[in-house]
Amino acid sequence: MRGLQLLALAAAASLLPATAAPAHAAGGEEATVNPKGKMVCKRTQRTGTRFYDQTCKTVGQWEAIAEESRRNLSEQTNRPQQNYQPTRPGE
């Protein structure tokens, strides 16, 4: 069974072109691609189950979420601590 899968994979790979597609547009102008507009999908496992959720957002949206998470963590760790001193009974 595994040998059959490898044979099918090798056959499919031989059908792919050996050269990469040109990076420029047909008119001789270079195509500009906005990397922040590219869609990226991430899989996260739901707690308590073996199933995954897939979330797709742009690179810019993932960066904004990461920045917000960093800012929230910084606020939680850098806020002033309350001066709590427990009192003993009888004092």
Walk me through this protein's architecture.
The protein is α+β, with helices and mostly antiparallel strands and 91 residues long. It has a domain at 36-73. Helix content is 37%, strand content 15%. The protein is built from two helices and two strands. The protein has helices at residues 2-15, 59-78, and strands spanning 39-45, 52-58. Strands 1-2 form a two-stranded antiparallel sheet. β1 and β2 form a beta hairpin. The protein is elongated. It starts with a helix and ends in a 13-residue tail after the last helix. The relative contact order is 0.08.
Structural class: alpha+beta
Enumerate the strands of the largest sheet in spatial order, edge to edge or round the barrel: 1-2
Largest sheet: 2 strands, antiparallel
Q: Low-confidence parts lasting 5 or more residues at pLDDT below 50?
A: none
| Beta-strand content bin | 15-25%
- What is the count of β-strands? 2
Shape: elongated
